[in-house]
Amino acid sequence: MKNMNDIQQNLKNVRGKIEKACVRNKEIIRDVNEVKLIAVSKKQPIDRVQAMLDCGQRLFGENRVQDAVKTWGSLERDFGGNLKAQYNDLELHLIGPLQTNKVQDAVQLFDVIQTVDRPKLVYALADEMKKQNKNLSCFIQVNTGEEEQKSGILPQELTEFLKLCREVELKIIGLMCIPPVAEPSALHFAFLKKLADEHGLKELSMGMSDDFDKAIPLGASYIRVGTALFGRREVLKT
Ligand SMILES: *Cc1c(COP(=O)(O)O)cnc(C)c1O
Questions:
Q1: How many domains in the chain?
Q2: Which of 109, 144, 150, 161 meets the CB 3.0–4.6 Å disulfide criterion with 188?
């Protein structure tokens, strides 16, 4: 099985890199168990996702609700509706923008929403979770680079936004960011860590294939890795 072999190797390489990032000058600076690896399976063929599951990976990230419903719905059918019984501790994170008309599907499918980024979505999520009798953990996405085109709460809006989330009892466990491509990501990781500390939030979702080794010493508790685990994404699947 080609898929199985190279995925196993990629997983090993990434895990090795995580372990290395937890150590500086022979001293342990992070507990490796506190750094959780999210395999970003967006736009990957289903057999590679299956191979990743078979290699023991249990945390996955998807950036589009419809794509995720397709991939994970299909796997669910393969296992006769018992995917989570088959793969204990399977956890799906939404890491892309969430439209309010997709909230119902998102709350049904995902275990964690990492991209809470505006009041309208806060209300929609709170309502839907009540309806479905669920209480998903959520992250607030922060637009640390204050980029026009990027979603996320501006840093200066965070205090007020968090207050709103708490009023409607949305379970916010941490912060997430996607740094601007043209800037050193470490600055943004350090900034996100500072914001989380100031607001008493424990979890930090930061770092992707190219920079997770920088995010770990700066406090990342969830890293989101796609390419380095699965290889390049398919271009055709939308
Ligand atoms: C695609 C994606 C990733 C993974 O990116 P890679 O560079 O392939 O590791 C991480 N986070 C988000 C929000 C993404 O959309």
A1: 1
A2: 144
pLDDT score recorded for residue 113: 98
CA of 71 to the centre of ligand 1 (A): 17
Q: Report how far residue 203's alpha carbon sits from residue 36's, in angstroms, rounded to the nearest whole number.
A: 10
Does residue 237 fall inside a structural domain?
Answer: no
Question: Is 235 within the bounds of a domain?
Answer: no
CA-CA-CA-CA torsion for 57, 59, 62, 66, nearest 10 degrees?
90
Q: The domain that contains 97 carries what CATH number?
A: 3.20.20.10
Predicted confidence (pLDDT) per residue in 5-62, tens digit: 899 999 999 999 999 999 999 999 999 999 999 999 999 999 999 999 999 999 999 9
Domain that holds residue 139: 2-230
Mutate to test the pocket of ligand 1, among 208, 233, 234 (most ligand atoms within 8 A of CB): 208
Q: Does 238 have pLDDT greater than 50?
A: no
Residue 45: other Cβ atoms inside 10 A: 15
225 close to ligand 1 (CB < 6 Angstrom) = yes
